[in-house]
Amino acid sequence: MKISCFPFLLIILCLSSSFAPKHEYHVSVTQMQYDKPGKSFQISIRIFTDDLEKGISEDNNKRIFTIKNNDQNNPFVERYIRKHFILTSGQKKAEVQYLGKEEEADATWVYLEIPFSENPEGWKLQNSILMEVFDDQVNMTNVKSPAGPKTFLFKKGQTVQSL
Questions:
Q1: Which listed site, 44, 53, 110, 153, has its alpha carbon 20 to 30 Å from 69?
Q2: Where is the signal peptide (predicted)?
C-alpha cells in the first residue's frame, strides 16, 4: 500500500505554524526627547510589527497589511499614528510630522518630530496606540524635556496625561 506524503506534510506544516512564537503582552515604548537647538520634540515609537499591522488593518476595513522596510504603507502608518498620538494645549494641537518607519526583528520603529518652542508644562499627550485593538495594551512614554525626565504609562481608560 502506497501512502501519499502530501497530507502528512500539510498536517505538519499546519501544526508547526500554530506554534510560531507570539508575544503574550501588548506594549509600545515611546522615547520623546526635546531638542533645544532645533526647538522640537524628537520621537521614536517601538511597536510590535504584528500588532501595528492589526491596528492598521482594523482602521482600514480589515485590509491586510504587511509592514516591511521600503513597503508602500507609510501613508497608512502615518494616518494611524496621527490619530492616536496627539499633543494638545487647550484648543491648540501640535503638528506631528511623520518622518518614517523602520522594521527591526519583530518590531517597527516609527519616527516623528513635533516643532515645539513653548514650555511643555500644561500640555496633554494622548497615546492611545492599539488600545482599540487590545484591551491590555500599555504604551510607556519616556519624556525628556527642559523640566526633566518623566515616564508615563498609558492604558485603557487612561489615554491622556499632562506633561
A1: 153
A2: 1-20
